[in-house]
Specification:
Vanillyl-alcohol Oxidase, Chain A, domain 3, eight-stranded antiparallel β-sheet, 585 residues, single chain, 23% strand, five-stranded antiparallel β-sheet
């Protein structure tokens, strides 16, 4: 165990020294050849079982070209989906149809030049394909700040609002970026007499804006988005690593005291990290940067080595080895403040910097390609990290009980939680009530957790039952809402019942897209929470909830069993006795 710890420390030290100078940016999500184009997301998680093949893709550079593309698609009765430069959604929302002959992809990668800042009215209007980083930098140049943003900046203007991307705040308009949208231009199909497509401008007073803010790309193609701004400000951040004993009693107080608060909980380490994050005056000393460790360019050797180590521990069913990894990783994050830098390195708290440098990060996106020895750690080309991401959104009064249940499950065998603590534990953030029909109807708490995913869909994972029980506990016992751009399919079961304004969204869709040009079987599966057909192994990747052993992997010792704390859960749990029976057969 000591040797493993030393090895991990060396890997982490190498990771810290890795520079972005010789790194490669992520691959484009669309790859084309003579037969057409294949679409995947940036993690490569769709895999061979669900390839998205389309005959053609177009790259408009102006609103006029975008309008023409929609008109042509409508005239020829084509299914349409829009893909961005980044393509980070885990559900396959950007795939137009499995019938590849009657569809087209529209990429906004080249539609990214228009950014108009109105200093007097404190708003900015940007083209759909503008990257979040480009938007923030232009706004900051004008002496203003965009208040909310997701933590990962590898998103486009239209992509981040379409899927409900968010940061963390219960203050002001809140941490969800779509709640700072005050106007939008949407291109929708039209009659032949109108040229087959038209631009609809939605302003703050228009009820359709509440449908379009979080639309999953189902209402039309977003052309331009207008965001509200504030006068420029700085932020001051301090991380407090402490005992987790009272986290369920303290999370609300923490959120109300600090404007951009969050909490990272490492259950196996019995540690909670409270982020004290507030705005400070512009004349406050400091030029800090938030360069989150997980979003830096990492040595390809390190990424491969970490993945290889985790795979070896999985195959050996070595829980203690995973705990050694979790302990080393958490200790390293504490040492370097998880990527916060006062100048070039972290020298101590608080770290103070301009809002535009502190609110989001993603330095692995921007690396030149002169050499290839580092990359984003999840880049599918390097066979590095490969993981699931579950994200559940709770009303605060239910979240405290959820935490208590997770604590009960953790206390049964704390080492079973080391798998998520290798990544980022449970990240707890805060978003305000929203007027968006597919947004949150009340102030909410969001919890994210990442965990190991096998290379093959038929391979169960160590402590599979633990993550399935936490997942089902969140979405079914406490009726949490799923994040639209994340999660395994089972998280969306009956999701429409969780949104009071769901029928208003459906009505808006019928008004703007009566022929369902922008829908697909994949997006319907998510929007309407339809369960996939059950079959052998369907529970392993969250395509179903197991109801019989065959939905797990009985040949590898995984049987369908009830939860340990949430008894109504049905999870795939490893059984040594079942393996013995298989062996003797």
């Amino acid at each position: 165990m000591a040797n493993l710890g030393l090895c991990l420390w060396w890997l982490l030290h190498t990771l810290h020294l890795a520079t972005t100078i010789h790194a490669m940016p992520p691959p484009p999500p669309v790859q084309c050849n003579q037969t057409g184009c294949n679409l995947s997301n940036s993690y490569g998680v769709w895999g061979d079982r669900k390839e998205c093949h389309v005959p053609n893709i177009t790259y408009p550079t102006t609103q006029t070209e975008l309008l023409s593309a929609i008109a042509n698609a409508n005239k020829n009765k084509l299914k349409v989906k829009v893909v961005t430069k980044f393509s980070h959604t885990i559900p396959k929302l950007a795939c137009p149809t499995s019938m590849s002959t009657n569809s087209i992809l529209i990429s906004t990668e080249m539609y990214n030049s228009g950014i108009e800042v109105d200093v007097n009215n404190l708003v900015v209007t940007a083209d759909a394909g503008v990257s979040l980083r480009a938007l923030i930098d232009r706004v900051e140049e004008a002496g203003l700040s965009l208040v909310a943003a997701p933590y990962w900046e590898g998103v486009s203007v239209a992509g981040m609002i379409s899927t409900g991307a968010h940061g963390s705040s219960w203050w002001g308009k809140g941490g969800a970026i779509h709640d700072h949208v005050v106007g939008m231009s949407l291109i929708v199909p039209a009659k032949q007499s109108e040229g087959y497509a038209k631009v609809v401008r939605l302003e703050a007073h228009d009820p359709l804006l509440n449908a379009a803010k979080v639309s999953l790309g189902l209402l039309g193609v977003i052309s331009k988005v207008t965001f509200s701004l504030e006068r420029g400000f700085k932020r001051s951040i301090t991380y407090n690593f402490t005992d987790d004993a009272r986290i369920e009693d303290e999370f609300m107080d923490h959120a109300t005291k600090h404007e951009f608060a969050d909490i990272t909980w490492y259950p196996s380490r019995h540690t909670a990290v409270y982020r004290y994050d507030d705005r400070v005056p512009l004349d406050t000393t400091g030029d800090g940067v938030n360069d989150f460790l997980g979003f830096q360019s990492n040595s390809i050797l390190v990424s491969k080595s970490v993945r290889a180590a985790e795979k070896a521990l999985e195959n050996a069913r070595n829980v203690n080895g995973k705990c050694a990894m979790a302990n080393s990783f958490m200790g390293y994050k504490k040492l370097i403040a998880n990527g916060l830098k006062n100048n070039l390195i972290f020298t101590g708290y608080p770290v103070v910097g301009y809002q535009g440098k502190m609110q989001t990060s993603g330095s692995c996106l921007y690396s030149p390609t002169t050499r290839i020895d580092s990359a984003c750690s999840w880049d599918p080309r390097i066979k590095g990290l490969f993981f699931y991401e579950s994200t559940a959104i709770f009303p605060p009064h239910k979240f405290a009980d959820f935490l208590r249940d997770v604590r009960k499950l953790r206390d049964l065998k704390p080492e079973n939680f080391c798998g998520i603590d290798i990544y980022n534990g449970l990240l707890i953030r805060f978003i305000k009530a929203s007027g968006a029909y597919l947004g949150q109807s009340e102030d909410s708490v969001v919890v994210d957790f990442n965990y190991y995913r096998a290379d093959e869909s038929s391979t169960p994972r160590l402590n599979q039952d633990v993550w399935e029980e936490v997942e089902q506990m969140a979405f079914f016992k406490y009726e949490a809402k799923p994040h639209w751009a994340k999660n395994r399919n089972l998280a969306f079961l009956n999701v429409q019942k969780k949104y009071p304004s769901f029928n208003k969204f459906v009505a808006a869709k019928k008004q703007l897209d009566p022929q369902n040009m922008f829908s697909s079987e994949w997006s319907d599966e998510i929007l309407f929470g339809r369960e996939a057909k059950k079959g052998d192994g369907c529970a392993l990747e969250g395509q179903c909830i197991c109801s019989e052993d065959g939905h797990c992997s009985p040949s590898k010792g995984y049987l369908c069993q009830p939860g340990l704390v949430y008894k109504e859960a049905r999870v795939c749990r490893y059984s040594q006795s079942s393996m013995s029976m298989t062996y003797y057969k």
